[in-house]
């Protein structure tokens, strides 16, 4: 769903969380909740205003139990019914309107190829964590 902000950032939560060896595998829902909290302050540290969509999957979906597709502090959270990659591609395809830049945050090469074919730009988790770290300092 397009809004009046200029960009769209789609976060592959599983890939981003998995990029830091901080014990996330012991509590996937907790790791997803921590990422959502970190993303809450992100908007002020972006190069341009953007809507942020976070796609979660598997055990991490418990982070938003009871309300799987919702707004959370300005973030849109999408709970994947199946593959998180497929859900991300669906978000990009639905949002592609030619009016705004879509950026997908993932290091997954296969997913990068799929969303780039739809016109999205891709960046890795380091790009996102640099902005999160700036927001928390």
UniProtKB/TrEMBL annotation:
Domain of life from the UniProt record: Bacteria
InterPro entries attached to this UniProt entry: YacP-like
Organism annotation: Rhodococcus opacus (strain B4)
Protein name: NTP pyrophosphohydrolase
Pfam families: NYN_YacP
């Amino acid at each position: 769903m397009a809004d009046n902000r200029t960009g769209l950032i789609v976060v592959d939560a599983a890939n981003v969380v998995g990029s830091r060896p901080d014990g996330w595998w012991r509590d996937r829902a907790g790791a997803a909740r921590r990422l959502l909290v970190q993303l809450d302050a992100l908007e002020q540290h972006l190069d341009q205003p953007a809507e942020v969509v976070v796609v979660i999957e598997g055990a991490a979906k418990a982070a938003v139990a009871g309300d799987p597709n919702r707004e959370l502090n300005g973030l849109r959270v999408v709970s994947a019914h199946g593959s998180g990659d497929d859900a991300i591609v669906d978000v990009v395809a639905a949002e592609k309107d030619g009016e705004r830049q879509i950026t997908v945050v993932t290091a997954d090469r296969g997913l990068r190829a799929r969303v780039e074919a739809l016109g999205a730009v891709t960046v890795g988790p380091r790009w996102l964590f640099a902005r999160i770290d700036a927001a928390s300092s």
